[in-house]
Design brief:
The protein is mainly α and 169 residues long. The chain is built from six helices and no strands.
Length: 169
């Protein structure tokens, strides 16, 4: 129960930071995707089920506040979180390379999916411009923020594991 409450608080805090505070420190017109970092982190650290659930609720929050239809962002985040869960078996706490690689792939896939469903289907076909102005700056900014934010999430995850072990004893 403590884990669910903590994850819920993390989702809300990341959403609030991403949608309010980080708009004041945007670079090149983009903000880092903290909810994607959170989804990726819990998928790597806790497995497919946890990545799927964190991704679903993160995306659902984005759908509720910014979406015109309920579900697309929830599905995208959920799919990425589930996909990250496959790397749970090869994940090590000390390894920084795997999270950096997965967040860059996740951010690229996320933005390509957003482009396809929200721009290309509306006949806005200039992918090169979208790549240069949105995808690459957001990827770089998200990767830089991941270096710091991921360490905080690892500490929270270790604390959750310690609390769970203490409760079972």
């Amino acid at each position: 129960m403590k884990r669910c409450i903590t994850i819920g608080i993390l989702i809300v805090v990341c959403f609030l930071l991403q949608s309010t505070v980080f708009h004041y420190i945007e670079l090149a017109g983009v903000v880092p995707n903290l909810l994607l970092i959170l989804t990726m982190s819990f998928g790597l650290m806790r497995g497919r089920k946890e990545g799927l659930l964190v991704g679903f609720f993160s995306g659902l929050l984005v759908d509720i506040y910014f979406g015109q239809v309920l579900g697309p962002y929830a599905f995208i985040y959920m799919t990425l979180g589930y996909g990250n869960g496959f790397f749970h078996r090869i994940y090590y706490v000390e390894d920084v390379l795997l999270p950096m690689f997965t967040i860059s792939v996740n951010d690229f896939l996320y933005n390509v999916i957003i482009y396809v469903f929200f721009f290309m289907l509306r006949n806005k076909l200039d992918f090169a411009e979208y790549l240069i102005e949105i995808i690459l700056p957001e990827m770089i900014y998200t990767i830089l923020i991941t270096l710091f934010f991921y360490k905080i999430l690892v500490r929270i995850n270790l604390r959750l594991k310690q609390v769970k072990e203490a409760d079972t004893i």
